[in-house]
Amino acid sequence: MDAFFEPVADATGASLDQIKLIFCLLFSYPLGSVYIRIPPTHPELKHIFSIAITFFYLVPVLNLYVGALQLVISVVGTYYLVQRVQTNRMPWFVFLFTMGHLTINHILRTLDEAGYETIEISGPQMVLTMKLTTFAWNVFDGRRSADELDKWQTAQCVADYPSLLEFFGYAFYFPGFLVGPYLTFNEYRALVSGSLYKEAEKAEEEESMASDPMPQRLVPRGRKRVAFRKMLVGLMFLGSYVVFYPEFNFHLTIEDEFEAKRLFSRIIFLQFCGFFERVKYYAVWTLTEGASIQTGLGFTGYTKTGGTRWEGAGNVDIWNIEFAPNLKVLIDSWNMKTNVWLRECVYKRVTPKGKKPGFMSSLATFAASAFWHGIAPGYYLSFFFFAFTQTAGRLARTYLRPLVLPATYVPSRDAPPPPQTTIKQIYDYVGVIITVALVNYGTLPFMLLTVDDSFVAWNNVAWYGHFLVAGALVFFYCGGSGLIQEIQATRRRNAKFRQQREELNRMVQTGAITPTSNKIAPTLPPIDEAAQEIERELMGKGKDKAE
Q1: N or C terminus: which one in the chain shows less Cβ crowding within 10 Å?
Q2: Distance in angstroms (rounded) separating the CA atoms of residues 360 and 311
Q3: Exposed e or buried b for every residue in 278-311, given b needs 16+ CB within 10 A?
Q4: What predicted TM-score, i.e. pTM, was given to this entire model?
Q5: pLDDT per residue as tens digits for the range 49-89
Q6: Is the CB of residue 253 less than 8 Å from the CB of residue 189?
Q7: Alpha-carbon Rg of the chain, whole angstroms?
Q8: Helix (H, G, I), strand (E, B) or coil at 301
Q9: CA-to-CA distance for 136 and 77, rounded, in angstroms?
Q10: Helix 90-111 to helix 65-84 angle, to the nearest 10 degrees?
């Protein structure tokens, strides 16, 4: 089928594999409309349909014949491994099996020097690895006592083992197979059976029965509108990527022409490069989210005005990435499904029972994420940098942020949002600028892949990210945190005294306290030693008059 795609690749300047990938993502939209019309009373037809479309993409379109066979081996191996191994180590056996297989393909990709423009089997295998390892943990949770499970584990545990056909349908669910997002087995089962829309079906059935005794709609309204809006947004990002990426990309930061610019110009140019490096991810993830919604996935309930919400298939929150006030918000908004997988299948699982996750849990999660992405040294340079950046960001949020909030404000889950004072807004704006600048700096190795290119690019922007992070860590660990705590403690004391004075003034003005010649005059709250001395003198004079 290459002859069909080659003219488009020549016209756009994109690689042949990129054109094929976009074709698969867009073709999933009309196929999603067909998929959702298969009645839930015939789930086997939905499984077969999804499997057939996925192998159509893999084999005749992408020419991944051997890769498709490898994925079948991973799926069949996981299915029987989970079914037959009943020990507590079963999920880790599956983890080693799938991650080991993925790592082998990452090594082969590195040896072949395949770039991001090349579509080969390790990309879909990364998504499949998340599915298979999550399934293993879900089955393991289904074999445990209910009182041992947390909220997510209770919702996703699998007690009824699927048939091989159903498991293949889950593994090869076509809209998110190539680039994600991944979904859990229970989410797939709810999609196929229609139970995902139980509440929506009930509400709409009551509405329909009022005028029509035979209601026809089984899927909440608004699905197509949201799906095609996602497609439009994805195509806009894709168009901007095609137009601007050749002029703004990280590979230009290692060129002599870039080095010849002034330092400030190089740093500003890097920010534009970082945005357009992210744009391609925005494009494909938004397109695949819309295709998933077309099949009915992602329904999360209703808005206050009665509209439907389709947020369950999202993998990226673009606004909270480009305007993140801190690194935590940005990380939580990027590749969100992978974050869930790392949290639920690694971070929590390596933590000993009865203990809170600590350094070793974070280290294991970091290692799993690094190996999942690949073996290129650039990945590890980026992860290592962001490990320190995240620590610096956490310290800034812990110690600096309270200084721009009211001294009496106590942050908590149930607390209202803090007031947006001028200094708080300035703090947020500065946080956005620093966060985006550090992300663009830290992802240079992630895209350049090699150590040499990464160091050249960092050197060309004067290592500003390292200086910012190192300076913050030195400040906080060398006395800065203690100094800020003292300042904050003083702010709290002064705020408390002000509240007491205001309360006293209010009581005097309202007549709650009325000084008389026969009673001791009310005293102000002691502020310092001088105030306390004045208070004692006033009380002494009051006693003399009383006598």
Answers
A1: C
A2: 33
A3: bbbbbbbbbbbbbbbbbbbbbbeeeeeeeebebe
A4: 0.84
A5: 999 999 999 999 999 999 999 999 999 999 999 999 999 99
A6: no
A7: 30
A8: strand
A9: 12
A10: 160
